[in-house]
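Inverse folding, one chain.
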């Protein structure tokens, strides 16, 4: 079998050249990182679960008209995606005070926010992904005013969908991080959802027990078995059957 060409490797995923022009293969690793990669581990099965959960969410978003880079899942660890030009922003949507916003603003973790708040962070590991404003984004040409409008509108649509979906299975959507890319179609360009949506990039709390975390805070804060938490999310969403694991899914 010919060796595939690696295009990019990040902390949690590898991108390979796709089978057709304009496509890539996205491979989900078992690597877990926190605190800007100061804390690291390899957790067997994490990549499989993230692949399955992200597939489920992206496919459903495609179905309701939210444009994404996702085409289909190829196997347990890989997805076929459209090649996009990544906009260098991490977009965080917050419904409940947790993590950095609680620290910055002196809020008690778990406090519902007055409304959903969207924040932008400049994607740059060397700078620890600093919080930036729309003024920064347009001044440094990271995204145009129209792209910012598109990103805000799409992020709110994603939040509405995810909030309802998770509430329906007894999970509170606290916040999530997403990324966007430019999809070129001839001379036309569209803003589409890219990267992944998985427990790696969300805060998910059990609705009946907020001390039970079902996201990467389990790893960040040493709260127990990360794969078991992710598998619980997959089971509640109907991706895994009761008794089924990432290994035999």
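Residues assigned per position:
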């Amino acid at each position: 079998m010919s060796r595939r060409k690696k295009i990019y490797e990040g902390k949690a995923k590898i991108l390979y050249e796709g089978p057709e022009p304009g496509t890539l293969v996205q491979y989900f690793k078992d690597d877990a990182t926190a605190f800007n990669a100061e804390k690291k581990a390899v957790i067997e099965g994490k990549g499989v679960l993230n692949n399955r959960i992200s597939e489920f969410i992206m496919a459903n978003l495609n179905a309701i008209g939210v444009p994404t880079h996702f085409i289909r899942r190829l196997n347990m660890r890989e997805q076929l995606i459209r090649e996009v030009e990544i906009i260098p922003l991490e977009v965080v949507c917050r419904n409940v005070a947790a993590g950095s916003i609680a620290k910055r603003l002196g809020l008690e973790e778990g406090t519902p926010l007055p409304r959903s708040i969207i924040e932008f962070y400049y994607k740059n590991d060397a700078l620890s992904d600093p919080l930036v404003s729309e003024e920064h984004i347009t001044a440094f040409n990271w995204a145009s005013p129209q792209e910012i409008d598109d990103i805000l509108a799409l992020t709110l649509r994603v939040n509405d969908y995810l909030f309802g979906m998770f509430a329906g299975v007894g999970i509170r959507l606290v916040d999530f991080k997403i990324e966007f890319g430019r999809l070129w179609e001839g001379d036309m360009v569209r803003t589409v959802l890219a990267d992944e949506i998985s427990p790696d990039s969300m805060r998910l709390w059990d609705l009946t027990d907020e001390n039970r975390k079902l996201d990467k805070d389990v790893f960040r804060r040493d709260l127990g078995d990360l794969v078991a938490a992710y598998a619980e999310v997959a089971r509640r969403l109907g991706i895994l059957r009761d008794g089924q694991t990432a290994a035999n899914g």
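The helical segments are 46-63, 100-105, 134-139, 145-167, 217-220, 226-236. The chain has two domains: 6-84+226-236, 85-209.
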